[in-house]
């Protein structure tokens, strides 16, 4: 990071090694600049108390409250058999609700002396449920003495900043560390061009940093937030604008389909007409393919909106124009399925060079890691000789041995499953950069598309083809109402008796080695049991509630041939119920499957549940999706499931998903390994700022692509795009 030395100063020099180590390991903060950009999550007013009634379960919280009473109990236990065990129960209140704090053993002495009725303090800990009441066990606390010099100094003014904290480092300790480094904020270099800052009435960066950490009034917080949001939005949009600018300079071969070629022959045979949406999106794609720089387009469409058809027509257009097209799928099951369905859709047009093939035909080959050597050799030969116009495969396509005669188009299915390196490697196989079409069935709100895929043009398919059925979704609270779960299995039997099939989805396979030394995640601790597993559930169902039905299992660690055989039997209707992991999440298409039961549904994300649910209701019969959970009614997990059950609108759900996860992984954390650069900007609420920043950024980059006149902006870009993320955006 090329920032001012004061902001580059390592924290261990300023705060000492122990604190710096915790900050680095748990919060990803390494330098003074990092710490200054660790903004408060919210503010408490000194005279007011936190609303205790709204505390989320299982989350680490910081609250400001007053002690109502404190009682010391003694009890007998294995460690203290003669009734010498001690437990301190402290009740705190905010006037609207109460919360119990519990301290045990030797930990009771200090709080017993300090937490007297009437004392105000900040408490931090994880909210858990005990005897159906919320409690914090062994919380850390900091007394708020109104008179002490030190407290007034630390919590300047009446507003107490509450920082994103961890169990190892409480909010107030972070606050104290920030007070130590705050003077360095004066040296922060401003990334915004003066004209933009003055034109929008934004405060300078040093002032914003001071006001966010040490506000005297609520207006200070507002000033600081609007300024810091602009920084994040603008710097990120400049990075994306520079990518688009660079891409626009790349050469590509224009691919225009022949007037009476393969595409026309294919369209003439279609037994149905394309939806309006499909026609519109196809036109956008064909216009892009006809230009001499590479298309970069994101195609989003709800599960079942006909994306594969649109992608196939784009691939046929490129084959018509003398090029080859590659489709990259995230799993072998999906690659095989795409291959099957595309060959079926094309009929004899997929039999290029074979007897009975049509005159316009080409070959459609499959390439996956588990193919036999002979089939693989033949597929590689077909690609290099151009006999095969279309290849469908997994990342086996990316290996060095795979060579194309003339790669013109890369279609990536289910974007979020592919690391950026893989897409880049495939794009490197063209003589010139090939056109790129990225497909996703996870609906992405417009602002996220502008932020995450800001270097891709976006097309949306939002109509479902005719003949799709509605899906009814319900939450099944297995712990509160066990008879609901029994009824769920009856419903599955009823569907099978009516000639249909069902899925049961579990979070785990069940043949994993359990390492006794491996630490359990807090969620597992909270649950006191591991997530349900396919192998165990399948056995219980076959012996119990689904006795007499043909039940099979499918999971990622099976041999590919076995997986394919299971899928074929299920598709042919020979298997009644498929108990599977999320390998069925994307693209599996069995129109006769109408029921889905998702076990431990709270272990899945919102968009994942939406994807899974999209596997039923694909035919003319209505679909049913049951979300089974043991989480209590009040938990955030239950609210998430209720949201999924209440709407089938993927865009609405992706908004809810984003609100729940915040923007933690918006910048593709999983793909870049770098932590998110969005701390202040919320992609949902700040749509306007993002859209305006995008325009400003495009203007700045068009006028000065190298940003020679804006050294402060260059510095901020280098900081945002440390090596890792630079590559990530480049490969986007």
Structure, explained:
With 732 residues, this protein is α/β, with parallel strands linked by helices. The strands form four sheets. A seven-stranded parallel β-sheet has the order 11-12-10-13-14-9-15, with helices on both faces. It has a six-stranded parallel β-sheet with strand order 16-21-20-17-19-18, sandwiched between helices. Strands 2-3-4-6-5 form a five-stranded mixed beta barrel. Mean pLDDT is 81; it is low at 148-157, 519-527, 662-676 and 726-732. The two termini are 22 Å apart. The chain has 28 helices and 21 strands.
Features:
single chain, 732 residues, alpha/beta, seven-stranded parallel β-sheet, six-stranded parallel β-sheet, 21 strands, globular, disordered C terminus
Summarize the structure.
The chain is of the alpha/beta class. The protein contains 28 helices and 21 strands. Strand 18 (551-554), helix 21 (560-571) and strand 19 form a beta-alpha-beta unit.
Largest sheet: 7 strands, parallel
Question: How far apart are the first and last residues' alpha carbons, in Å?
Answer: 22 Å
Instruction: Estimate what percentage of residues fall within beta strands.
Output: 15-25%
How are strands sequenced across the largest beta sheet?
11-12-10-13-14-9-15
> Helices and strands: which structural class?
alpha/beta
Indicate the radius of gyration in whole angstroms. Answer: 29 Å
Q: What are the segments in which pLDDT stays under 50 over at least 5 consecutive residues? A: 148-157, 519-527, 662-676, 726-732
Helix content class: 25-40%
Mean pLDDT: 81
Globally, the shape reads: globular
**Tally of alpha and pi helices:** 28
Q: How many strands in all?
A: 21
């Amino acid at each position: 990071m090329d920032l001012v030395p004061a902001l580059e100063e390592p924290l261990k020099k300023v705060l000492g090694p122990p604190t710096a180590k915790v900050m680095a390991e748990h919060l990803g903060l390494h330098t003074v600049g990092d710490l200054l950009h660790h903004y408060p999550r919210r503010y408490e007013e000194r005279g007011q108390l936190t609303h205790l009634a709204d505390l989320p379960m299982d989350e680490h919280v910081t609250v400001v409250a007053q002690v109502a009473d404190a009682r010391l109990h003694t009890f007998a236990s294995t460690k203290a058999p003669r009734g010498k065990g001690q437990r301190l129960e402290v009740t705190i209140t905010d006037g609207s609700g109460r919360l119990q704090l519990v301290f045990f053993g030797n930990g009771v002495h200090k709080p017993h002396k300090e937490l007297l009725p009437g004392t105000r303090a900040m408490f931090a800990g994880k909210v858990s449920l005990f005897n159906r009441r919320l409690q914090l066990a062994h919380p850390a606390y900091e007394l708020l003495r109104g008179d002490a010099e030190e407290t007034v100094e630390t919590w300047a003014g009446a507003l107490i900043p509450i920082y994103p904290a961890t169990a190892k480092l409480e909010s107030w300790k972070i606050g104290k560390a920030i007070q130590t480094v705050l003077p360095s904020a004066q040296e922060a270099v401003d990334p915004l061009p003066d004209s933009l800052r003055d034109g929008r009435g934004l405060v300078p960066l040093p002032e914003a940093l001071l006001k966010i950490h040490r506000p005297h009034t609520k207006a200070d917080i507002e000033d600081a937030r609007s300024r810091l949001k602009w920084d994040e939005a603008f710097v990120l949009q400049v990075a994306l604008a520079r990518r688009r600018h660079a891409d626009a300079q790349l050469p590509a071969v224009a691919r225009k389909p022949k007037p009476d070629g393969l595409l026309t022959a294919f369209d003439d045979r279609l037994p149905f007409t394309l939806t309006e949406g499909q026609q519109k999106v196809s036109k956008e794609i064909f216009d892009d393919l006809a230009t001499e720089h590479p298309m970069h387009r994101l195609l989003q469409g709800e599960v079942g909106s006909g994306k594969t058809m649109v992608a196939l027509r784009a691939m046929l257009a490129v084959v018509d124009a003398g090029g080859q097209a590659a489709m990259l799928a995230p799993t072998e099951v999906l690659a095989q399925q795409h291959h099957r369905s595309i060959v079926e859709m094309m009929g004899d047009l997929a039999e290029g060079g074979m007897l009975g093939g049509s005159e316009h035909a080409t070959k459609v080959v499959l390439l996956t890691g588990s193919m036999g050597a002979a089939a693989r050799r033949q597929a590689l030969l077909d690609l290099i000789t151009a006999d095969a116009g279309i290849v469908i495969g997994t990342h086996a396509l990316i290996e060095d041995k795979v060579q194309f005669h003339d790669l013109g188009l890369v279609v990536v299915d289910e974007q979020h499953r592919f690391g950026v390196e893989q897409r880049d490697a495939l794009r490197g196989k063209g003589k010139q950069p090939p056109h790129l079409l990225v497909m996703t069935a996870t609906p992405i709100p417009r602002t996220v598309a502008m932020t995450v895929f800001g270097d891709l043009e976006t097309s949306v398919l939002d109509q479902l083809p005719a003949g799709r059925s509605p899906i009814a979704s319900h939450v099944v609270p297995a712990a509160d109402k066990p008879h609901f779960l029994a009824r769920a299995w009856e419903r599955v039997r009823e569907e099978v008796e009516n000639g249909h099939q069902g899925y049961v989805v579990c979070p785990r396979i069940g043949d994993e080695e359990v390492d006794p030394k491996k630490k359990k995640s807090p969620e597992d601790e909270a649950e006191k049991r591991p997530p349900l597993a396919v192998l165990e559930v399948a056995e219980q169902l076959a012996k119990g509630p689904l006795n007499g039905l043909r039940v099979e299992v499918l999971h990622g660690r099976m041999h590919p041939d076995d997986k394919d055989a299971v899928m074929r039997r299920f598709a042919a209707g020979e298997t009644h119920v498929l108990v599977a992991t999320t390998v069925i999440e994307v693209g599996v298409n069995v129109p006769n499957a109408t029921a889905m039961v998702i076990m431990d549904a709270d272990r899945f994300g919102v968009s994942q549940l939406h994807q899974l649910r999209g596997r039923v209701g694909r035919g003319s019969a209505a679909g049913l999706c049951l979300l089974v959970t043991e989480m209590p009614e009040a938990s955030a997990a239950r609210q998430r499931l209720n949201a999924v059950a209440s709407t089938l609108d993927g865009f609405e759900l992706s908004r809810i998903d984003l609100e729940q996860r915040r923007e933690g992984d918006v910048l593709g954390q999983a793909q870049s390994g770098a932590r998110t650069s969005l701390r202040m900007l919320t992609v949902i609420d700040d749509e306007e700022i993002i859209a305006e920043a995008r325009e400003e950024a495009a203007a700045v980059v068009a006028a000065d692509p190298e940003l020679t006149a804006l050294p402060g902006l260059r510095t901020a870009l280098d900081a945002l795009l440390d090596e890792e993320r630079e590559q990530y955006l480049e490969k986007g």
